[in-house]
């Protein structure tokens, strides 16, 4: 039996290890089904694009277009190239330009974000309320970390999240200062905030 948890030299890492396990397990619970769904859609898409028969591609065009919609802009462009090669007329909603009113939707009001396209089965991400809440919460915590690291919070001193997690006495540091855990969290929040930006629209793939 491993004795790391009872070893005084490493016992302070136990809370951090449990946190990593919980975060990793939660991430796998949500992301693994999406990953396998992505592989299935990509295999279907590649199979249809590899067909030389115009009739067969037309017969399976809805299947191909649904897969391209879920997979993203690059796959839509590839499917349009297949249509051009086989002289198949694109879907009407893919070939018509949007009106100015729909084209100018803002980041705040457009729930069709990069993350909603990457995780199509999480339909909650396509709701405007969830989209705005995700932007607000992510921005709020990112601003707190930035303020604490750059200006030292209300008492003009930066504290280390790394010390809090591993159970060491929390030390104050003169700003600007950022500990490794805060840097990782800030990077993750920045990536999440970027993923809430609008995904490339279908019409942008059409020349």
What's the arrangement of secondary structure elements?
Elements: H1 14-49, H2 54-59, H3 61-71, H4 73-85, H5 92-95, H6 100-103, H7 114-118, H8 128-151, E1 158-159, H9 161-166, E2 172-173, H10 180-195
Antiparallel strand pairs: 1-2
Helix pairs in contact: 1-3, 3-4, 8-10
Short description:
The chain is mostly helical.
Q: Can you put this structure into words, describing what you see?
A:
- The chain is mainly α.
- It folds into 2 domains: 28-96; 105-199, no CATH class.
- It has 10 helices and 2 strands, in the order ααααααααβαβα.
- It has helices spanning 14-49, 54-59, 61-71, 73-85, 92-95, 100-103, 114-118, 128-151, 161-166, 180-195; strands at 158-159, 172-173.
- Strands 1-2 form a two-stranded antiparallel ribbon.
- Helix 1 runs antiparallel to helix 3, helix 3 runs antiparallel to helix 4 and helix 8 (128-151) runs antiparallel to helix 10 (180-195).
- The model is unreliable at 96-104 and 202-207 (pLDDT under 50).
Strand arrangement within the widest β-sheet reads 1-2
Oligomer: single chain
How many alpha or pi helices?
10
Would you count the extended β strands for me?
2
Beta-strand fraction estimate = under 5%
Q: Biggest β-sheet: count, sense, barrel?
A: 2 strands, antiparallel
Jot down its keywords:
207 residues; mainly alpha; 2 strands; elongated
